[in-house]
Amino acid sequence: MPKTELDRVKVKTLDSQFEYILKELFEYSPREAKAIVEAANEVYQLKHYDPSYHESKDKIVKTVISKKAKHGPVLEDLPKVQVTLTKSITKEDKALFRIENKSALRRVKILRMTEESLDQGGLLTQEDLADILQVSTRTIRRDIKKLKAQGFNVQTRGTYQDIGPGVSHKTKIIKLYLEYNTYSEIQRKTRHSPGAIKRYINDFGRVLLSIKSKLSIKETAHIVGISERLVKEYTELYFKYNSSEYKERIADIVNIAEEKASVKTEAKKGVIK
Q1: Quick check: 4 pLDDT over 70?
Q2: Please, are residues 70 and 24 in contact by the beta-carbon 8 Å criterion?
Q3: Could you tell me the pTM of the whole model?
Q4: Do 15 and 63 have their domain in common?
Q5: DSSP secondary structure, 169-217, as one string
Q6: Using alpha carbons only, how large is the chain's radius of gyration in Å?
């Protein structure tokens, strides 16, 4: 059983994922499952296989614990999934770094990657985050504590199992905007770049247009380019704030989304060169 932080990271591999499937679905013993995996590695020459081969310049591939895994069993006996995460520094990240500092940038990455993993059916641990970001678990714990103090739900495995899936940081940012906070106020409260805030609001506006068009959650997620989980959160947020108090803000968001949609439609027709 893995005892150190490094051991807990190493045990989450494709081999262990394959062994779990053999034991759980085909009822092989641990020894038989291990032997089959070793034989497969030998026959198909997988010893030198590197999952990073499938990584792009901006993404990394990570084997993590499935969100369906129960609490308690040792890591070797838990179901695992492969997830693709955004590790690279984006244009928005660079803007945030200029405004804030390295710690704020790392916290944004923590929020982004934990939510990306959850959307793909996996849960990152503090050790996973420390391994990806090349910092100590103590630093990760400190970052998570800071994020929670700011009102964010950090979707690590421990948090997910304790309190379930909370709302994403994107939903929290939209909530602040609906409550008439300015871009500067939201940036100060959440430590997110103005570019990221604007993008989240634009996506929210597109979800509102989809609701208006009576599209399904699945259709909306595909069109907007966000997860079904986030579409559900945005939809719930809209119905919660769809009142006279926030009517003006919602109308502004919808109008901007309609203008952008109109421009794209005209461009496709050839009106805009």
Answers
A1: no
A2: no
A3: 0.62
A4: yes
A5: HHHHHHHHHHTT--HHHHHHHH---HHHHHHHHHHHHHHHHHHHTT--H
A6: 21
